[in-house]
């Protein structure tokens, strides 16, 4: 079985290379915005969208024109990939099941989709760490229309190269390589159990087997620490030397939190992937308004603190990362993860004989009592049980 891996490194371009990269980045942005304006205009006028092939032909015309001739300086494949990526983004925006936002115009100096070299054959490496005189040097990567660029080879890559993407983030240039790695066919999962998982109001995760996973206590400590450092920052003179130092401190703190969170998510996903063969999670695209930690006016959430502010932000960001980790760990174990659309998970009675859905079932943030059959349980567990129930129904409906 083949899987894709990604490796990201900091680039160390020369000043001239950095200027080139900035110009090319501007060209990518220009092509994106121009093609997007064209497509938007057609949609508004009721014409069908141009295909990728049409746009690619236009790109060739632009590159040979007097007006947009500057585009011919930039590497061609990344420009074409920008158009492909735009078409992909438009397609996703009209997806009947998971519609997402329509692509927007790109502004200068924002982080944006990178410059992708889709053809691995054009990319070369010089991984020597010493020059002929024995001096230490950085390894280099060859990128079309830029040449050999130094990069910090911080970890060893494996697999066969598929593409490279150059991105800009907060003043630095990075290159990401995507590789394809052959891994052994998955074995049969040692477990035969299925489980539903829901994001809890009180707990980080609730499982349908009535267990919970809580965020470690340091989440709360970091929350206090960030607030403290932010207050310190607010008392400093903006753009002074100390103010800049403090900003750097806070950025380091955030990076530290991100690492600790990843560690927690790795441990949690490893345990779950070993214990269960099939895991159902609620589809992220289905918004469930009843899950607001604020509760309703009549029933304000009791545990609002547990998911407010930074703490909530940390956990919310963790959720999609958790799904990604769990998906590949399950695959390695021979199991799988399935997302299910599960609206009203917190208001529906999970009893197979009942299934009564009502706002009244949810008597508080933490408690669920069915008004029809009287079934009583923890509200987070009920959410997870419903995710499992819907997931199993969907599997049963699939054609064999
Ligand atoms: Zn019921």
Terminal CA distance = 22 Å
Bound ligand species: zinc ion
Q: Which consecutive residue ranges, at least 5 long each, have pLDDT under 50? A: 286-308
Strand content: 15-25%
Number of helices: 7
Structural class: alpha+beta
Helix residue percentage: 25-40%
The tally of structural domains comes to 2
Tell me about the largest β-sheet.
7 strands, antiparallel
- Order of SSEs: EHHHEEEEEEEEEHHEHEEEH
- Give the strand tally: 14
Radius of gyration: 26 Å
Task: Give an account of the 3D structure.
The chain has 2 domains: 181 residues, no CATH class; 148 residues. Helix content is 40%, strand content 18%. It has 7 helices and 14 strands. The strands form 3 sheets. The protein has a 7-stranded antiparallel beta sheet with strand order 2-6-7-1-5-4-3. Strand 11, helix 6 and strand 12 form a beta-alpha-beta unit. The longest helix has 35 residues. The structure holds zinc ion. Zinc ion binds next to loops.
